[in-house]
Write a structure and sequence with these properties.
Two copies of one chain form a homodimer. Chain A is α/β, with parallel strands linked by helices. Chain A has 13 helices and seven strands.
Chain lengths: ~350, ~350
């Protein structure tokens, strides 16, 4: 046999062996190397996710869903990134009011601005929702969408979380980032549907989550189209246009997507109706709740918590077939290590 | 030379000749066979579109735009399909009120319902905007989004245009369908941004235009999340949530897409701000107006028209560098022949 023919045969054999091994791998315990969710411990939550994705992507299978209908929606605060000790966006808004204070000398003697500037958060809190809305209004209204996005970018680049001493955009849940990538690799469209402000989230959603701006749904202020120095701008008004929370979430989903999701992840009772709406559609559905039960690596809270309160969801998840994800036992890590 | 080798050589020669001819074709006047816009006559409008798409897709070129930012927006009524003698959606709404009349005996004696049911359109028109809004309210409010979509589907399957005697969904502009396909083949996202109702357009946008529901932006009513017989539904309310017209269009674009389009097509002054907003962005931009100047094949109207009034756009297009498309001279056909 001439040398070249022998080398060809050897290559063909190696090739066949490689193909055979790849096909056999899952049965031989080699699957670990290609685990799409390495930050998820083996357990019912992970098994449910893998089984669901396998079922809806199995061409010709009974639960098959065409790619155009593979819509997965995710709450943001407490589901994709942290929300304690206060919503990260609220941290931003308070920092922005402080940054704007030099141009507003009248704030020096006017609560709740005075209290915030003096660092008296107890007095701010005593002002209740009214004080908070006043501060939020000052942080948002009057800015063009481009000015506001620049302010968010600056803040994300400099501000740090009080406990973890890391930029807020690093305090995203590593297992959820894996899940988002895994879903997209399986033809899903991943959407954020959050009570948070849409102009705030869009600044980092693409870079941090891989979710483009048109797949971010959130609360919003009225915008006014104006010409400034001959150039058109969109100016944020001090009036809420849409509150994307609770029963507002299915409305926000319908308005933005026009299709019912087949998969929804939330973490608080503010997500209840989103999960209910998702689950009520025909065919295979997966609704899940991220349960914050890990005080050591993050925070532990649910019933009675002011932020991310979770009661009805916990009470009804079992009967409704919703998956409850334990951050403590289902996740091998919460945040990726600092880069 | 053995036969097989000769046949191989012949095949190689034919192959090379074919490759050579393909490469030469554009220079030899053979380009027609692969013209992506066969319903567009050669002329400045077509040349501008082709040059723009070539420029923004030329990798490494000075006007290159990455695919994620290739957003093209299209008005619907008068830009993608007809709008005369009355907006097609208004035809639907009036037909729906008639269809609902048996369940509303009180309408028999109450204008404008009485007038509509008696076919007295002059009396309806005399009622002005108030009468119209009352009829529109009755056609929309109270229905769930699913009931409403079913009503639109039924109407599209049965109703015909008074002049052309064809289903309304066939009265879409063939040159614009070609343009939508051509843009998508070049990595553009095609969006509809219309003053029309979003729930109405989404029913046919995917099938007729290839635009999925999440890429349809329109006017909308408030929606209320309710449980009916234990199942969640979204019920249309008799209150406008968003008016996606004039200065509302850039707002609607920003809220839904979060990115400024690089290309916009409209046909009336209701689209002026959308074109202005698109053109004001940095880099290459294409804004265009479809001019209805073809009374023979469709309708001729612009200044002073009640529907699709176009004045400021015509006056300023030249100075603003906007392309005006003449339906009469730029299009080889308006509607595709009936199937």
């Amino acid at each position: 046999m001439p040398k070249s023919a022998g080398s060809l045969q050897r290559r063909a054999f190696l090739c066949a062996a490689a193909v055979g091994l790849t096909a056999l791998a899952p049965h031989l315990g080699f699957a670990q190397a290609t685990d799409p969710l390495p930050s998820w411990n083996a357990g019912p939550a992970k098994a449910r996710i893998l089984a669901f994705v396998a079922a809806v992507t199995e061409s010709g299978g009974p639960d098959y869903v065409p790619p155009a209908e593979r819509i997965a929606v995710f709450d943001n605060d407490g589901t994709l990134w942290g929300e304690q000790p206060i919503y990260f966006q609220l941290s931003f808004a308070l920092d922005r009011v402080k940054a704007l204070a030099p141009s507003h000398p009248e704030w020096k003697n006017k609560p709740p601005f005075k209290d915030l500037l003096n660092g008296d958060m107890k007095a701010v809190a005593a002002g209740g929702e009214k004080a908070l809305l006043e501060l939020l209004g000052a942080a948002h209204a009057g800015a063009t969408t481009e000015e506001f996005a620049a302010a968010v970018r600056d803040w994300l680049a400099t501000a740090k979380h009080p406990r973890f001493k890391r930029p807020f955009s690093e305090l995203v849940y590593a297992p959820m980032l894996e899940l988002l990538s895994y879903l997209r690799a399986n033809g899903f469209q991943t959407w954020i549907v959050s009570g948070g402000g849409i102009e705030f989230m869009r600044v980092f959603a693409e870079q941090v989550y891989g979710v483009p701006p048109q797949q971010v749904v959130g609360s919003s202020l009225e915008l006014k189209y104006e010409l400034r120095a001959g150039k058109p701008v969109l100016v944020q008004q001090a009036k809420i246009a849409f509150n994307d929370d609770k029963a507002g979430k299915p409305v926000g989903i319908h308005k933005a997507i026009g299709r019912r999701p087949i998969m929804a992840f939330g973490n608080s009772d503010g997500d209840f109706q989103m999960l209910e709406w998702t689950s009520a559609g025909p065919g295979a559905r997966l609704s899940a709740i991220i349960h914050h039960d890990d005080a050591e690596r993050e925070y532990a809270y649910d019933r009675g918590s002011k932020i991310g309160r979770l009661e009805r969801g916990l009470d009804e998840a079992g009967a409704r077939g919703w998956t409850v994800v334990s951050m403590k036992s289902d996740w091998t890590q919460v945040f990726a290590p600092a880069p």
